[in-house]
Amino acid sequence: MSITPILQFGTSRFLQAHADLFLSEAMPGARPVTVVQTSGDPSRTKRLHAMAEGYEVQVRGIEDGQQVDRVSHVDSIARGLTFAPDMAEIARIAAEEAQVILSNTADAGFNPRPEDTGATLDPAMSYPAKLAHLLRGRFEAGGQAPQVMPTELVQDNGAALKGLVLDVAQGMDKPYRDWLTEEVVWVNSLVDRIVSEPLDPAGAVAEPYALWAIEQAKGVTLPCDHASVQMVPDLGLIERKKLFVLNLGHTWLASRWLEDGQNPDFVREIMAESDLAGALRALYDEEVRPGFTAAGEDARLDDYIAVTLDRFANPFLDHRIADIAQNHGEKLRRRIGAFVDWARANGDDTPKPRLEAALKGEDA
């Protein structure tokens, strides 16, 4: 088995159609990844083996205004391991091979567990606790500090994971804790791609748009050379575009959907209705753009809006408005209310009747 410089925790369809696909396209035939299944779910064993054999990602949607439907073969994964039975081999790879540790461990992946206080590595531990013990093995072996790259949807995810690992390591030797703090490279990143459904036994259906934004910092390097993988000086700029354009647009459409009797079912159906699609475009042009302009953050905003509208109109994506409308009050505050406050704080005093109507639950 070849040496794999990337150790990946998680077998999600998102990673299959995101990082693993990018690595395959950037390094064809190199197979740099060992994937670890952390859940122990026996139903995923078939997927794990299929990932190592190579799988397909079907990319379907609208790109540059044109409908696309293409298939990419992914061969970046050299082997798949399951944490409990393969723990010794995983520990060896972490100590001897891994230069990059990549993860996407689902929403609960960072949550502490009672087993985290154990003195030795335990498959029942949370991901941060597992990582604390695995990295200790690398430190004790004298290995070079790796780059840790979480892709979980947590703000400042690298810093958050670092803090959790250090919490677990409190009772460990000080030289190791210093190494974790000063030598290991903890990477903040933001990922974005809608991966709408899995393929069996492995693979996925995904939209054309994809982004892996990695925050520039000392020691941080890109995992591969790919158009969708970008080093950026400030993730905040990208986070605001995502929150105040894509997420805001979704929530505004959900407000209209609730007002109009909860019909139709899917975002793509709304975008096929010229009146509502036109109203969304006007919202972006007349109410959202001035806020970004006032903040000095309107560079390439029109491109991002155009891509967002293409994503909403994806004819292959069954994105239910009812799902977007869940926790609607909180989303109104975090997406629309927060945008209006941010825009006003930056000196934008232009009228925002549609947004304010959504906040009041009234028809614009």
Automatic annotation (TrEMBL):
Gene3D superfamilies: N-(1-d-carboxylethyl)-l-norvaline Dehydrogenase, domain 2, NAD(P)-binding Rossmann-like Domain. Keywords: NAD, Oxidoreductase. InterPro entries: 6-PGluconate_DH-like_C_sf (IPR008927), 6PGD_dom2 (IPR013328), Mannitol_DH_C (IPR013118), Mannitol_DH_N (IPR013131), NAD(P)-bd_dom_sf (IPR036291). Residues 6-218 form the Mannitol dehydrogenase N-terminal domain. The lineage of its organism: Bacteria, Pseudomonadati, Pseudomonadota, Alphaproteobacteria, Rhodobacterales. This is Tagaturonate reductase. GO terms for molecular function: oxidoreductase activity. Residues 239-344 form the Mannitol dehydrogenase C-terminal domain. The keyword Transit peptide does not apply. SUPFAM superfamilies: 6-phosphogluconate dehydrogenase C-terminal domain-like, NAD(P)-binding Rossmann-fold domains.
